[in-house]
Design goal:
Jelly Rolls; 8-stranded antiparallel β-sheet; alpha+beta; 5-stranded antiparallel β-sheet; Glycosyltransferase; Immunoglobulin-like
């Protein structure tokens, strides 16, 4: 989660111990490029008189001409006698997509303009880690289609190598074939590894449930897909200017909706859908539904954003537990405990905004709390990840991560205590929710996480067979203030309030060294900072404040207005950190594309090469903007956040906005946009926009009796510190 915690960065690359129930994915190298100009996961090289058309070393994307819309890759080349060229199409190693269906062939679809191009097609090989290549194969030997139409190419994996595990394939590589005197080109789409076994026919047609128009897009929803034969949902559209339906897109079956950006058009759009099986054979079509875009006020835009991001936790939840998945797409049975706490607060906001009914939310919280009472716990503390079907720990970050995670548990408890305050009616269901949450809350042994050799600090992890093997103490400034606060507030296993200052806000050498190590500066090494950045004074924070999730995760329920320690009030401090982040984007010292007054927000998110926590300084700015950073800062920077929302949606929404809201991050420099919706980053947008609009989540959490007593203890301790 936090890039400074080096063990996490290592663990993110491991992704071991796939659940026995985990559903396999088809390994796909390309289906659509999120960005319209160039495809990030490609690499073009040429020498001598041979040439390949490229954009910044990447393959161009062909818009509105594809086997499966919205786009395909364009390979345009000259194969000269005194030259050479190659094109690599690489696998995007998405976190959690690590369990694959059986496959024994490489499959893709080609479109060529003429027969001469077919005779001059390149050679092809498979790529593996560390640059190893398979046997080289002449592509034209496997081409049986005609020019001027899409045709499928299937190459048995045994032709490349006698022993291939599809999990080890890193990509494919095209290299120059026969030399020609002319420029040749082809389009390529749906590059994947499949089985030669024909797919069964899907018998039932889908049903469209709704089509709803917004300012720039139409949202479609349909009945949840349960048939495992469905590979994609095919979307077709017509409008008042065109009487024929046009094939406009595909959607993976685990998402029960589609977002169609139509821009400023005020036409009436009519939709129908069908299912595609693994051989791309379609079913009969669904019913049709129509919708139209509309002008929207700022309040309506906020409703739209909150409702879309809530869907991740409502429609996209793991079905057995009702809890949040780590990311979508990703592992389909792996629950993220911290993100689930965030999701509960989003559900509460969703009831308040009438996106879902109180009765529906009550049933969901019953399912959640009943599941949690039976799931793995260690001294009352949950692991980072749980299997939704079994309730067992999933050591996704490696074998050491097989026990208690105190920080993720604190995020979960923040959500549970908020839900306890919200579900306050005197009926059997809501009473059970409150009783279940009380059991879960009072069972957490916060005091267990004081190691004898680190008694002034809370320690993040404990393993049932390896004890304190990770041995990471919690030291602020970062996202873990809520952990100390809840440990102090616990009615059963609390720690002394003095630990706030001996641990979280410690000035001991251990704490100073820790901050210098990850901040690479002495600024803020004493917890307090005092320097000015972009003419904004920062009372507390390492470097110039760090990534913006530091100002979000601990403050969804814990109202920073009410939290003032010996150094600062935390609403004021968080506001300053948000303003620094905003001003950094305006200054844009690294000259990243897009950065500015309405394109800002550096935080923890997916990235082109890895997950990273970006900061507003050149050393830790990787050129990617994370929507949750600016949009979850609404309480702190309402005007700047609203500008960002409108820009993200109106000018980049066709690339960046989907059925679960904004995708996790985007880099205009790299022609890259994350394929992920993230459990840790969708709910903060819902929750903090709600706190901006009504302060609802703050009011609920702060109304809890134990929370109030914890705040009193902390205030008393602060008074003692100030008197010294």
């Amino acid at each position: 989660m936090n890039k400074w915690f080096s063990y996490t960065v290592v663990f993110l690359m491991l992704s071991q111990n796939v659940s026995a129930q985990e559903k396999p994915y088809v390994k796909i190298l390309f289906d659509n490029s999120p960005m319209p100009e160039a495809y990030y996961f490609s690499k073009v090289e040429h020498s001598g008189e041979s040439k390949v058309k490229h954009i910044d070393g990447k393959l161009p994307v062909k818009e509105n001409e594809a086997f499966t819309p919205q786009n395909a890759l364009s390979v345009e080349y000259n194969s000269a006698k005194n030259g050479n060229w190659s094109v690599q199409i690489l696998y995007d190693n998405v976190r959690g997509i690590d369990h694959f269906e059986f496959s024994n062939q490489l499959s893709f679809w080609l479109f060529v303009q003429d027969k001469e191009t077919i005779t001059s097609l390149p050679n092809i090989s498979l790529m593996f880690d560390e640059g190893r290549l398979s046997n080289l194969i002449s592509l034209k030997e496997f081409v049986q289609g005609n020019s001027e139409e899409w045709f499928q190419v299937k190459i048995p994996l045994g032709k490349f190598d006698s022993k291939i595990n599809v999990k080890d394939i890193f990509g494919i590589k095209f290299t120059q074939g026969e030399t020609t005197s002319k420029t040749n080109s082809f389009l390529i789409d749906q590059i994947e590894f499949t089985s030669e076994i024909p797919s069964q026919i899907i018998k039932n047609a889908p049903t469209l449930i709704s089509a709803k128009g917004y300012e720039k897009h139409i949202d479609l929803s349909w009945e949840k897909v349960t048939d495992t034969l469905v590979k994609y949902v095919q979307i077709l559209r017509k409008d008042t200017q065109n009487s024929q339906f046009k094939y406009i897109g595909i959607q993976s079956p685990w998402i029960s909706g589609y977002t169609d950006f139509v821009g400023d058009s005020k036409n009436t759009f009519t939709y129908k859908i069908s299912y595609l099986n693994k051989d791309y054979a379609k079913t009969s079509y669904s019913n049709t539904l129509s919708a139209q875009t509309k002008t929207m006020t700022d309040e309506e835009l906020l409703d739209m954003i909150q409702e879309a991001h809530l869907r991740y936790y409502w429609e996209g939840a793991e079905p057995n537990s009702g809890l949040s998945l780590e990311n979508i797409p990703g592992r389909t049975t792996m629950i993220a405990t911290g993100a689930s706490g965030f999701g509960m607060m989003a559900i509460v906001a969703g009831v308040h905004r009438n996106f879902i009914s109180r009765e529906e939310a009550t049933d969901r919280l019953l399912k959640i709390t009943r599941y949690l009472l039976k799931a793995d716990r260690f001294h009352g503390t949950f692991p980072h990840f749980l299997d939704g079907e079994t309730g067992k720990t999933v050591p996704f970050f490696g074998k050491r991560d097989n026990g208690a995670d105190l920080v993720e548990t604190s995020f979960l408890m923040q959500g549970l205590l908020t839900a306890k305050a919200f579900f306050d009616q005197k009926n059997s269901k809501e009473e059970e929710i409150r009783n279940n949450i009380t059991q879960l809350w009072e069972a957490v042994e916060w005091d267990w996480f004081r190691q004898e050799n680190s008694i002034d600090f809370l320690t993040w992890h404990w393993s049932p067979d390896q004890a304190w093997t990770i041995d990471h103490q919690l030291i602020g400034w970062n996202e873990t203030m809520i952990t100390y606060f809840l440990a102090i507030a616990s009615p059963t296993h609390n720690v002394p309030a003095s630990m706030y200052y001996s641990g979280w806000a410690s000035r001991a050498k251990k704490a100073q060294d820790y901050r210098v190590n990850w901040g690479k500066t002495k600024d803020g090494s004493m917890y307090s900072n005092g320097n000015s950045y972009f003419n904004i004074k920062l009372p507390v924070g390492v470097s110039n404040g760090g990534p913006l999730f530091f100002t979000h995760y601990s403050y969804f329920g814990l109202d920073p207005h009410q939290l003032t320690d010996a150094y600062v009030n935390y609403f004021d401090n968080n506001q300053r950190i948000s303003q620094i982040n905003h001003q950094y984007a305006i200054s844009n010292p690294e000259n990243h594309k897009g950065y500015g007054d309405d394109f800002w927000g550096l935080s923890a998110s997916d990235g082109p090469s890895r997950y990273s926590a970006d900061e507003p300084n050149p050393e830790n700015d990787h050129g990617k903007i994370t929507p949750t950073a600016a949009l979850s800062s609404f309480p702190y920077t309402p005007e700047a956040s609203m500008k960002a929302l409108k820009n993200f949606y109106r000018n980049y929404g066709d690339k960046w906005y989907g059925y679960y809201g904004f995708y996790d991050a985007m880099s205009l420099d790299s022609h890259w946009r994350s394929p992920l919706f993230m459990g840790l980053n969708q709910a903060p947008i819902v929750v903090m926009i709600e706190n901006y609009r009504s302060q609802l989540i703050w009011k609920l959490f702060m109304s809890n009796e134990d929370v109030q007593k914890g705040l009193e203890k902390l205030n008393a301790q602060t008074k003692k510190v100030k008197q010294k």
